[in-house]
């Protein structure tokens, strides 16, 4: 399985680091699972749900490390999005990268993330 991604406010991620696991953002708690995106989905997720927000981090997670708690389920227009039913163990995290806003107000992603 490939990497999956979580967009997270820096303060919330720092709380996860102190706790030793990520229990989710408010929207995750409300929905009963932690929302992730694939590399092909994450730029649209940022534009749709985090437009103009700064001080965000892009957390890359090894999907294989999450086992059966990670499920791909239909969402926007039937696209399959990764959802984690449970806490995210920090041992599954492969990288944490800043997501600065670019000159046009869109988030800047690492080179391996397809840009729309």
From TrEMBL:
Lineage top rank: taxon: Bacteria
InterPro entries named in the record: DUF952
Protein name: Dihydroorotate dehydrogenase
UniProt organism field: Methylorubrum extorquens DSM 13060
